[in-house]
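Fold Annotation — chain and its backbone

Fields — amino acid sequence, structure tokens

___
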Amino acid sequence: MITKKGLKLGFIGGGLNSAVGNTHFIASQMDGLFSVVAGCFCRDSELNLKTAEKWGIDSQRTYRSSADLLAAEAQNLDCVVVLSPTPEHFHHVSSAMKAGLNVICEKSLAMTSSEALELIEVAEQKNKLLAVTYNYSGYPMVRELRQMISAGRLGKLEQLHIEMPQEGYARLNRQGQPVIPQQWRLRDGPVPTISLDLGVHIHHLVDFLTGAKPLEVVATQSSLGRFRQVVDTIQAIVHYTESIEAGFWFSKAGLGHRNGLRLRVYGDEGSAEWLQMEPEILLFSDTRGRQMRIDRANIDVEISHLERYNRFKSGHPAGFLEAFANLYTDIAAELHGGCELQQSVGFPLFSPWKAWEGLVFFEAVNRSAQERRWVTVPQVKNSE
């Protein structure tokens, strides 16, 4: 376990009206490795101050603009957390790094692969950490699944099927009216916003679990919910390196699904399945017909039994907030000079290069859907 404490954070975005602000605040505090000491949480001055008050932030260190925050706090912070809407990420991340600060950015890092590459170049020029958070890779049983694949328990991987249906663009509120999303989510750019919201998680999970790279893709993009001006459903078939075939479906018009993220991985010696709605359980099957339900208490686990994943004992579920907290622990380790996850499994979990690769992939998905054909995914350089 990491024992060093006292890393000081400043937030850009993440106010009380934010979808992810409270989650990042709680997760960053969970293991006592960070403290949030300053921020520009919201453009609305009243909400900005109310957010600071709720989180115990001194009003004198609560700023009206991100520029004011960076000007006043650049020498006082270890890291800035960027939680603004995705279209604003490029500006805020770039400004923070140019001010000499490390950055933790909520996915998606940027709107396009070219924007992401420019941010990576700034990070390298300034020698600053740029970490991008994909929270599902923080779940203990997802990390256990990666260990099982790495150890060969599934044999040679052959198929992956990942789905992530949500119902937000299909259901109605208590007054019988559509649930209106944030305005920036009702506009699509070079990469449809649903790919920036949901798809990048799927791409990151495949990379996290297998290390395989997409070679070619054929995809469809549809508008099936109540906001027909944007894409809300994508299905894709992807050929990966190592002769792995994958099927993806993600949607915000999947009525009946709150967040139905499901991973199914098939090898020639075994298969495994994980469902985000039941995060403590990993289902494993082998070629002899044996089926096993694995949790953190299982005698065969190699990752999920570790102290860092057991803030409370097995049987008391670790979920969404804890997954984010696991990422913050990884980031704290990196800021203190060496990420324990990298040391144990050799994977740069939160690398911005992975964010860039995801945007390259979804630009190819968009092109496939528009041109109604298989599209070759540009092969990215060795980014690590």
In short: The radius of gyration is 21 Å. The chain has a mean pLDDT of 93. The longest strand covers residues 157-165. Residues 352-371 form the longest helix (20 residues).
